[in-house]
Amino acid sequence: MRRHRARERNKSLRRKKIASVLQRGGRLACEACGFDFEKIYGDRGAGYIECHHVLPLHIAGEGRTKLSDLALICANCHRMIHRRAPWPTPAELRASIEQKHADDRRAAAALTRPRRAADADAEPVS
């Protein structure tokens, strides 16, 4: 259990993951929803983001964790991933979020679409 916790909560790996993203010119934004702590909270949020094992350790088994095994995500998305099994990957959660936004846009467009003349002439249903 101690070895598992050390691997799960390895602060050095988190720092390396963040450094690798910044070295590539990226920003510390959630890989699922795009939330950027520094953009919203200024200096207080600078450098902050949570680190998540994309493949759960009980599935990955023994071995070394590579930076590619980790994803940077915000606290809300981290909680949604761990809310219940099966756990979506950050990419799957992002796809779900994007689908929800697309559905919401379609629903809003349907509500604001001008009524057709045939609809306007119809008698209201009581």
Walk me through the structure.
The structure is a single chain. This protein is mainly α and 126 residues long. It has 7 helices and 2 strands. Strands 1-2 form a two-stranded antiparallel ribbon. The protein is elongated.
Task: Give short descriptive properties of this protein.
2 strands; mainly alpha; 126 residues; single chain
Major sheet description: 2 strands, antiparallel
Quickly count the helices: 7
CA-atom Rg in angstroms: 21 Å
Percentage of residues assigned to helices: 40-55%
The first-to-last residue Cα distance is 66 Å
* Oligomer category: single chain
What order do the SSEs take from the amino end to the carboxyl end, as H and E?
HHHEHEHHH
- Category by helix and strand content: mainly alpha
Provide a compact summary of the structure:
This protein has 126 residues and is mostly helical. Helix content is 52%, strand content 6%. The protein has helices at residues 2-8, 11-23, 37-41, 57-60, 75-82, 90-112, 117-121; strands spanning 50-53, 70-73.
